[in-house]
Amino acid sequence: TESVLVGEHGRDIPQSCDVVIVGGGVGGIYALYQMRQRGLSVRLFEAGSDVGGTWYWNSYPGARVDIPSYEYSYSFDPELQQEWRWPEKYSAQPELQKYFRHVVDRYDLREYITFDTRVTATRFDEATNRWHVETDGGEKVDCRFLILATGPLSEPIFPRVEGIDRFKGVSIHTGQWAQGGPDVKGKRVAVIGTGSTGAQVSPELAKEAEKLYLVQRTPAYSVPSQNRPLSDDEHREVLENYDAIRARARKNRSNLGIDVCDDSALDVDAETRDRIYEERWEMGGLGFTAAFGDLYTSVEANGTAAEFVRKKIRQIVMDQGLADHLMPDTLIGAKRLCVDNGYFQMFNRNNVELVDLRENNLIEITEGGLLMERGEIPVDVIVFATGFDAITGALLKIDIRGRDGLSLREAWADGPETWLGIGTAGFPNLFLVNGPGSPAGLANMVVLAEDNVNWIADCIAHMERAGAETIEADKAAQSEWAERLTEMAEASIYPLANSWYVGANVPGKPRKFVSHMDYPEYLKACQQSAKAGYSGFLLK
Ligand code: N01
């Protein structure tokens, strides 16, 4: 018999179920929907107080999607697609969270979710082939299948700087804004970090703050989003052509509906090239680096796009001395390209000051601000836009033990290895959504989550039919997958940058590129494995 608790609404909350899902974001919500559709009993644990994951936590001013909203949304139900009205091309965080809340309520999923609860440990019991799951709320649940939808960018990291706990003002990481973002009106604010987040949050804070210090370690490339309200006509056109829009994106390496040009940037003259870059700049968004086919494979071709953006920075930033400090000199796109709404324009405000760590290093954080080599900067608020222990951080935070007590932390000590980004050897009946080895971080994560979850749900159904108790990635298949990922990475510019893609933003993390770069190829591999009775997996 199943042990049960009685929930708020008088419904039994099972302590023993078919599936436990960790994470109530983009991936977890759809996993919950799909498992319920398949008639499985499910519990979902979410650390936040509401659903949305990334779009719950990152509620900082300026947070906004950089893939058009009508693409960055679920495709599984045509009715859902048809009834939702996105207000802007790139909708802001509150709108995204509203959407994810709507999905949860529309399909009656909320009652299966336990909020404000972190899964701390999970252990596979080989005698029963079940996972034991423990939470920080002291709950113990066991399940047959464990789905980890913890997100690749959900474990915030802070600079390792002396005095970080000493600061008497308000300090907050952008990825924890939901816990209570500060009111910066009339305050002196320091933002540390100039990645996608820093480029989004700073212009918004600068509008409110008395003074904004932007602390920059590496200048970033950013292109304008050219965001705008989605007109009724555009909205209608999207609704009428949704299938075609989705189908088109599926053919793209990142599952995006952008126009990709296959020509080499080096085969056209400089004038033509600049005209093409100008068109892309005006169009806005991530399509900028799809202007030519070799910007991610040739350092020389990449340099032409980089130079174009540098020229733009010079044109936008009025103070040319300041523009010098903002000039990126690395490869464009090798660290994820920022998409902004007035980032470089912000530097023309007289309440914004750039603090360039390359010539004025941060020594420590004091009670009242930042102690720099050149003196103290007193501030009231410190905003850490310093990023995440990406891809593996949230997974390895959980003490996960597979066969023979093997810990995932040990198994992945040299970097994660998976087969299809979905399973990993030694951890039976454990499935990853948007995991390492999938195109997570490079592709539309909503659609990727759907593809992963559909695959998992079909796999579970297959196991039922075949009478299999466990499924586990085969080590050989996993090694082959790792080789393919490395091969693709080495043919690209990605490994050349110190980015979260390769783990370079976390001291001591093994340097490895573990994302799949080609969505159509990725999907085909997943489908082929399923078709062949889940090849690359051991079913028992
Ligand atoms: O994090 P990041 P993020 N001292 O790691 C700096 C997605 N996203 O939160 O470049 C000083 O990219 C660090 O400096 P450096 C998107 O996939 C999307 O901005 O390492 N500075 C860097 O400038 C994105 O890529 C959107 O030298 C320090 C910054 O902090 C991913 O999330 C919006 C430092 C971190 O940049 C992560 O973006 C936001 C230190 N000790 C995020 N440590 C959209 O637009 C770090 N930095 C949809």
Concise overview:
The protein is an alpha/beta fold. Strand 3 (about 15-20), helix 1 and strand 4 form a beta-alpha-beta unit. About 30% of the residues lie in helices and about 20% in strands.
Ions, cofactors and other ligands present here are: 3-acetylpyridine adenine dinucleotide
Counting DSSP H or I runs of 4 or more residues, the number of helices is 16
Taking all residues together, what is the mean pLDDT? 97
This entry's quaternary arrangement is: single chain
Using only C-alpha atoms, the radius of gyration works out to: 23 Å
Q: β content, as a range?
A: 15-25%
Helix content: 25-40%
Contiguous runs where pLDDT drops below 50 for at least 5 residues: none
The description of the largest β-sheet is:
8 strands, mixed
Can you tell me the overall shape? globular
How many extended strands?
A: 22
Helical/strand content category: alpha/beta
Distance between the termini: 25 Å
Pfam families: FMO-like
Family: Belongs to the FAD-binding monooxygenase family.
GO molecular function, one term: flavin adenine dinucleotide binding
Protein name: NAD(P)/FAD-dependent oxidoreductase
Description:
The structure is a single chain. With 540 residues, this protein is of the alpha/beta class. The chain has 16 helices and 22 strands. The strands form 6 sheets. Strands 3, 4, 5, 6, 7, 8, 19 and 20 form an 8-stranded mixed sheet that branches. A 5-stranded parallel sheet has the order 9-18-10-11-14, with helices on one face. Strands 15-16-17 form a 3-stranded antiparallel sheet, with no helix packed on it. α1 runs parallel beside α14 and α14 packs parallel to α16. Bound molecules: 3-acetylpyridine adenine dinucleotide. The site of 3-acetylpyridine adenine dinucleotide has 24 residues, from α5.
